[in-house]
User: Which sequence fits this backbone?
């Protein structure tokens, strides 16, 4: 009788995803999605799990820029972030048609659904810290980071890092944050989930995404080019969304060479102004500084 009770209990726990002794392994995985451009399309994500150590690991999801792909982004990220690769589970998903569905990109895929499904699947494994996910994005990938921070309600995500893409004027129209919606209309005002940590890195000489806001020279939008919010003001909007009640910082909190840091809420929301750098400004942030942010505020 006791054996039967134990067996039934194990089956019930397993069915509800509570009991899961399986570890996530390095490799390539796919999630099937359908949308108006594709039916049952297998979307790729590449996973690296550190070897040689037991226990639960934090997770970093890196979103490539426009024209990128999962395998190339994975190789580059692992090469540039060797310390992180030794301690974090690293995941690189692939955007459909080499991009992420923001405003007027070619892809019309449900990217938020894709990333959220990855997080749900990965968090079921026994070697994963379920509430310690960080999402880092570059350029077009950072635009998706912003959209996830606006709309996502998963408790698993702790940190958002956007490289060379502050909020665009569709994501925040000067009055409210906006949900993308199925037709990319950005009509519905939403309140982002509080308690998140956010970092933005932007270069003052960026010719693609203007630091001081305004229209991009090249990124398309409906009826013209895509407009952006001033990088410093974008971070201030995020700080207010996370509970900051003061004025926008007029001067940096810290200066280190050509790097100026604007810090809100004891470092939970930060902006790095990289003077003299263009669209490659993310390269100015050393790995130890990035890790310090990702691990900051931990109890």
Assistant:
């Amino acid at each position: 009788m006791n054996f039967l009770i134990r067996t039934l209990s194990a089956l019930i726990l397993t069915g509800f995803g509570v009991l899961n002794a399986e570890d996530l392994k390095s490799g390539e995985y796919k999630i099937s999605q359908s949308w108006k451009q594709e039916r049952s399309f297998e979307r790729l994500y590449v996973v690296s799990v550190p070897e040689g150590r037991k226990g639960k690991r934090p997770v970093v999801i890196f979103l490539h820029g426009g024209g990128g792909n999962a395998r190339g982004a994975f190789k580059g990220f692992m090469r540039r972030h060797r310390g992180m690769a030794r301690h974090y589970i690293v995941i690189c998903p692939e955007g459909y048609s080499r991009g992420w569905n923001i405003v007027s990109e070619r892809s019309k895929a449900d990217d938020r659904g894709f990333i959220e499904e990855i997080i749900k699947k990965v968090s079921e494994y026994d070697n994963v810290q379920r509430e310690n996910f960080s999402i880092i994005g570059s350029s077009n990938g950072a635009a998706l980071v912003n959209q996830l921070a606006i709309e996502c309600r998963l408790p698993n995500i702790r940190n958002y890092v956007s490289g060379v893409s502050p909020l665009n004027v569709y994501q925040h129209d000067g009055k409210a944050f906006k949900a993308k919606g199925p037709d990319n209309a950005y009509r519905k005002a939403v309140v982002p989930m509080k308690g998140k940590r956010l970092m933005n890195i932007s270069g003052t000489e960026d010719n693609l995404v203007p630091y001081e806001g305004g229209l991009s020279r090249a990124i398309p939008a409906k009826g013209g080019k895509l407009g952006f919010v001033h990088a410093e003001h974008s971070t201030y909007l995020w700080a207010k969304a996370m509970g900051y009640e003061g004025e926008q910082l007029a001067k940096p909190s810290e200066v280190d060479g050509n790097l100026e840091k604007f810090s809100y809420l004891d470092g939970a929301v930060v902006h790095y102004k990289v003077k003299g750098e263009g669209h490659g400004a993310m390269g100015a942030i050393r790995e130890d500084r990035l890790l310090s942010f990702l691990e900051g505020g931990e109890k």
